[in-house]
Each structure stands twice: as structure tokens, then as C-alpha cells.
Amino acid sequence: MKTSEFIAALAADPIPESVHLRRRFAAAVAVGLAGSVALYALFVGPRPDIADAAQTVRFNLKFVVALTLALPSLLLLFRLARPDARPGALALWLFAPLILLALAVVVELIVVPSSEWLPRLVGHNMRYCTTMIPMMAAPILAALIAAMRAGAPQHPAWTGALAGAVSAGIAALLYASHCPDDSPLFVATWYPIATLVCAGVGALAGRRFLAW
């Protein structure tokens, strides 16, 4: 039997009722998020001036960008857990956080003197940012990989990478409340690097645990 015929046969059969893939995904997000929140409470915590920071556009933009990464990625991940899945137009939403960041960076470069560009890009906590986001993403990524083993993704490595993006987006939502660097130049540089780390780990995990 050809691979394409095998995939079609799998797709024709409904997922057994005992699997409850949707429930497994919901449980994975809940369990993973609980682990991430525990790490946040132990090692991170909110920034001291969070009440004042919440009144600024730059601070709130970090949450918008993280949400526009996490939500479409999670919906697409659930879709790709099936062997007959196609990304469709939903995949285009993955460009949303990149577009938002690009626009924000352009505005920042216009309104901020060039002498401040590099200090704002480097920020204060770039190493902490690129460490803590993957650390807080780890419980979510592990839970999502475990949940997807009940499905049959056609491209395990790419699906695992997408799970890494989901986990990074959710972790960034938490970390954003601690991060003292609100400049779009900082966010557009170091948050994507942390996301790529998560996606890379997810790709390796997907290849190892989701292949069939």
C-alpha cells in the first residue's frame, strides 16, 4: 500500500471515541499552563511597576503579539493532529505577530532618536528573556506532544515545531508581565529568538515521539 493510500485509509476511519483528541488537547493546555504558572511564580513574578506599565501601548503590545502567536498556532496544531489535515487559510494568521512587530518597529524607529536604537534593542534582560520563555514553555510543549500522540500528524517534525510555537506564545504571555523591556525593538529581536528555540526543541520532539 502506498503512503498516500495509507493516510487516506486512516483519515477515513474516525478517531476512536476513547481517544477524545479535543479533550486531550484541552487537558494538555491546562496541565502545561499550570506547570508554566508554577515556574512563573517561583522564578519570575510581575514587574514592580506593572500598574503604571499597563497604561502604555508598548507594554500591552507584548501581550497582543504573544496572543496572536499562541491562539492561531494552537488552532492549527489541533487541525494538523489528523493525518488528512491541511493548514488552509488558518496558516496565514501565523504572520500576524510578525506584521504587528514590523509595524511597531517602524513606528519606534520614527519616534525614537537613532542614538537610542541599540540600547533599546539590547535592553536589560535579553539573556533572561531567552532563557525563561523556553523554560516556562517546556511544560506546555511536553503536554502537547503527549496529547498529539493520540493523533497521527502527517509531518511530525513540523507539527512538533508548531507545538513549540504554541508553548512559546503562551509562555511569552506570562513573561511579558515581568519583562522590563517594552521597546518593540527588544520584543521583535529576543522574543522571536526564544520562540525559535522552542520550535526547534518541538521539532526534535515531534520527530522522536510523533513519527508513525
Instruction: Provide the low-confidence segments as ranges.
Output: none
- Secondary structural class: mainly alpha
Major sheet: size, sense and barrel closure? none
Please state the overall shape, judged from the principal axes of the Cα atoms.
Answer: globular
Distance between the termini: 15 Å
Number of helices: 9
Measured by DSSP, the beta-strand proportion falls in under 5%
Radius of gyration: 19 Å
**Quantity of strands, as a count:** 0
The helical percent reads over 70%
What is the string of helix and strand elements?
Answer: HHHHHHHHH
* Tally of separate domains: 1
Average pLDDT level? 87
Architecture overview:
With 212 residues, this protein is mainly alpha-helical. It has one domain. Helix 4 packs antiparallel against helix 8 and helix 8 packs antiparallel against helix 9. The longest helix has 26 residues. The chain is globular. The two termini are 15 Å apart. 39% of the residues are buried.
